[in-house]
Specification:
By secondary structure, the chain is of the alpha+beta class. It is about 20% helix and about 30% strand. It starts with 6 loop residues before the first strand and ends with a strand. InterPro entries: RutC-like_sf, YjgF/YER057c/UK114.
Length: about 425
């Protein structure tokens, strides 16, 4: 826990303790910056939380500047002493997931108070509110991470909720290279991303007769992408796979792990999707540093590897040239309207949020789009062209899932942006 005496609140024209949000106001013009200090007086990550209301369980977005970031594997509600998932309700499983997450984070010099982003996977839509409420109860007000919810089958019997996370570390030390920590007790893993350049690789998929073979071929193709952009498998920070069926999750993880030395196997997260393709895999990868000592004029660049076709609505690879990150909570339409209106509502909110955080739609790095209705896909592709610069769309994956977590909504956007300057 962070002592209250070590929390510095940035001065603002508005006192955050006296704000009363009007019911119809979605954003308040306040970016609360929290500088977390350790007893050695060394400054750690500067983390800023952009909130919709002081009472919200998550931030609209979280901005992190120049720090080592922890990325975790998918954390299950596993009883570490017995190695089993208890038959508990969603609320109690949520508390257990957070306990396990804190256990893992402490192994790599972090904790729940350093959370930046939570990706939350729930087995059923009707359980989402229970999970939200328990997260709100368990986390301190100062550490309200950006959160994205998706409803999917989970890779574990009896599991109702799982999470993976991004967190800042307590240490002010800089890393020279990626570090991977695999916990033998829990089976969970975490990677440490050095402050600096980072590549976000869009989901790639190769057709095959079986899920195992498709996984192998897709990983081979991804390794070619790593080579093209000038990095290596040893720099992979996180792997996310959209796959079906979830009952073959262990086989998929074994294939993915086989592409890395045992001590360098990165964290993996799995989401079951509905697709004619058995699997699509995306990656986050550390990049070699530029020797330039000044901040680059362009903070994010976009690339298309040889042999791949460029698209006006997503980039094959987006490379953040600076270490600042803007993690945006999953954005849903404000109202239950038709698909076109929901899509525009989501993109209008996205534009407002990233602009308040110091970015814009020309500096989006990584998007994950979850849709619960295939009818969204047609208008979604068209409407994206109204918002994206065709030469600068984010790297992206789109997955059709059971639910985006909330009734009468068909789309949620999860986004990472980079400051525009």
């Amino acid at each position: 826990m962070v002592p209250k005496s070590l929390i510095l609140w940035e001065e603002s024209k508005i006192d955050p303790l006296r704000i009363v949000d009007p019911p119809m106001k979605y954003l308040m013009n306040l970016l609360i910056a929290v500088l977390l200090l350790v007893v050695t007086d060394a400054v750690t990550a500067e983390v800023s939380y952009l909130k919709s209301t002081p009472q919200s369980e998550s931030s609209l977005c979280v901005v992190v500047k120049d720090t080592v970031l922890v990325h975790t594997s998918q954390i299950l509600p596993l009883n570490l002493k017995g190695g089993q998932i208890p038959s508990a309700n969603a609320s109690d499983q949520t508390a257990l997931v957070l306990k396990n997450l804190n256990y893992l984070l402490k192994k790599v010099d972090s904790n729940l108070n350093r959370l930046v982003k939570l990706n939350i996977y729930v087995a059923r839509e009707d359980l989402v509110q229970q999970v939200q409420q328990r997260i709100k109860e368990e986390l301190e007000v100062i550490a309200q991470p950006a959160c994205t919810y998706v409803v999917t089958k989970l890779p574990g019997p009896n599991a109702l909720v799982a999470m993976d996370a991004v967190a800042a570390t307590n240490s002010s030390k800089q890393l020279a290279k990626v570090q991977i920590y695999n916990d033998e007790v829990s089976g969970f893993s975490a990677s440490l991303l050095p402050a600096g350049r980072t590549a976000y690789i869009s989901g790639q998929a190769v057709k095959a007769d079986t899920l195992t073979e498709a996984t192998r071929k897709t990983m081979e193709e991804l390794h070619q992408t790593l080579k093209y952009i000038g990095t290596s498998p040893s720099n992979v920070i996180h792997v996310k796979a959209f796959m079906t069926p979830m009952k073959e999750a262990n086989d998929v993880e074994l294939v993915i792990d086989s592409f890395f030395p045992e001590e360098r196997q990165p964290p993996v997260s799995l989401v079951e999707w509905f697709s004619s393709l058995p699997i699509e895999i995306e990656m986050i990868v550390a990049m070699p540093e530029n020797k330039a000592t000044v901040r680059p004029a362009e903070t994010v660049i976009y690339q298309t590897p040889t042999g791949m076709k460029a698209s006006p609505v997503y980039s094959r690879v987006a490379i953040a040239e600076v270490s600042d990150r803007i993690y945006v909570s999953g954005i849903l339409a404000k109202e239950n309207k038709n698909n076109d209106q929901q899509i525009r509502s989501v993109f209008n909110q996205l534009r407002t949020i990233v602009e308040k955080a110091g970015s814009d739609l020309n500096h989006l790095a990584k998007a994950t789009y979850y849709v619960s209705d295939n009818a969204v896909s047609g208008p979604f592709g068209k409407i994206r062209t109204e918002y994206y610069n065709p030469k600068r769309p984010p790297a992206a994956s789109k997955a059709t899932v059971k639910s985006v977590g909330f009734p009468n909504r068909t789309l949620v956007i999860d986004m990472i942006a980079i400051p525009s300057k």
